[in-house]
Design goal:
By secondary structure, this protein is mainly alpha-helical. Helix content is about 55%, strand content about 5%. The chain has 2 domains: about 5-190 and about 310-340, HUPs (Rossmann fold); about 215-305, Orthogonal Bundle (Tyrosyl-Transfer RNA Synthetase), CATH 1.10.240.10. The protein binds adenosine-5'-triphosphate (ATP) and magnesium ion. Keywords: Aminoacyl-tRNA synthetase, ATP-binding, Ligase, Nucleotide-binding, Protein biosynthesis.
């Protein structure tokens, strides 16, 4: 059996550096190792509509933004299939059958859904589609027989839910679906990158993002307004690293060579952290360093994005071709699923 990746993003905004370290960077690396037989990258517009039903225009416009971010980060259409979820109707059909294998109380216990319901003030009136999106995510993953799902830590409950559906389906109808494995970033700071406001997660919905396409000035301004250690007032005061967003970002983005380039007084991040804890290292110096690091990481992405932006019809063509390929794969899985359920009557 081959090794297959399925992952994706909701087109609810441009992609940010949390997406980058949480999932995108890993996808590009895995794409370039060549060890996967197929890589499917989905723009989850149908899922985005589950909490943006009254704003389809926002979702529509962000499809191209997300596609540009993908290409800018180095996903290549020759190696990875980029496609749009809503163009694969087979996913709805699979979801419909999987719904019978999941209970309402099981969905209610999903911690990510719980948090998201709170964030969106949906407590009193949850759209049914939003409530059941973990099931549709199981359809997305299993339609492509994905073995590997590289995502951030917030997706753990979704993967658990998918595995349960796979087991249930296979035990009721016979071995048909493939159980996927989650692939989290090795680096803990990347699993759930906090927002620039220090909040638990950088998220489009929370307005605390550094976007991959932000201009240098905007990145700088966001870095300089970032949360550090509130008790570190004077330069000579000892500083804390826990909950210090600037250091979390350095954990996520810093490469050893950046010290030589931007901060030659220190050999590595451990040395910088030691000095901060001891006292005598000001926040401004650390922020200036983080700004240089982020600018170095984002510059090539921004440049590539601008190139692709000149040819939007070409980007749509990539998505069209990718969607056609994705549909043919999903259709084959659906045939197998219906065969296993013995509902292929004619
Ligand atoms: P929304 O607010 O619309 O849900 P989002 O910013 O949470 O947007 P998603 O499209 O839900 O983004 O997530 C896409 C992928 O990026 C998922 O794999 C998710 O785990 C990962 N991801 C999102 N935010 C972060 C983050 N702050 N740190 C690490 N990974 C993240
Ligand atoms: Mg999300």
């Amino acid at each position: 059996m081959g090794k297959i990746i399925l992952t994706g993003d909701r087109p609810t905004g441009r992609l940010h550096v949390g997406h980058y370290v949480g999932s995108l960077k890993r996808r590009v690396e895995l794409q370039n190792t060549g060890e996967f037989d197929d890589i499917f990258i989905m723009i989850a517009d149908a899922q985005a509509l589950t909490d943006n039903a009254d704003n389809p225009e926002k979702v529509r416009q962000n499809i191209i933004e997300v596609a540009l971010d993908y290409l800018a980060c180095g996903l290549e259409p020759e190696k990875s299939t980029l496609f749009i979820q809503s163009q694969i109707p087979e996913l709805c059909e699979l979801s419909f059958y999987y719904m019978n294998l999941v209970t309402v109380s099981r969905l209610q216990r999903n911690p990510t859904v719980k948090t998201e319901i709170q964030m969106r003030n949906f407590e009193a009136s949850i759209p049914v589609g939003f409530f059941t999106y973990p099931i549709s995510q199981a359809a997305d993953i299993t339609a492509f027989k994905a073995t590997t799902v590289p995502v951030g830590e917030d997706q753990l409950p979704m993967l658990e839910q998918t595995k349960e559906i796979v087991r249930k389906f296979n035990s009721v109808y016979g071995e048909t679906l493939v159980e996927p494995e989650i692939l989290l970033p090795d680096n803990e700071a990347c699993q759930r990158l906090p927002g620039t406001d220090g909040k638990a997660k950088m998220s489009k919905s929370l307005n605390n993002c550094i976007y991959l396409s932000d201009e240098p000035d905007s990145v700088k301004q966001k870095v300089f307004s970032m949360f550090t250690d509130p008790t570190h007032i004077r330069v000579e005061d000892p500083g804390k690293l826990e909950g210090n967003t600037v250091f979390t970002y350095l954990d996520a983005f810093c490469r050893p060579e950046y010290f030589e380039e931007f901060l030659p007084d220190y050999k590595n991040l451990d040395e910088l952290k030691e000095h901060y804890k001891r006292g005598g290292l000001g926040d401004m110096k650390v922020k200036r360093f983080l700004n240089s690091v982020l600018q170095a990481e984002l510059e090539p992405i921004r440049k590539r994005r601008k190139e692709y932006q000149k040819n939007i019809p070409y980007v749509y063509e990539i998505l069209k071709k990718g969607s056609e390929k994705a549909e043919s794969v999903a259709a084959e899985t659906l045939r197998e699923v219906k065969g296993a359920m013995k509902i292929n009557y004619f």
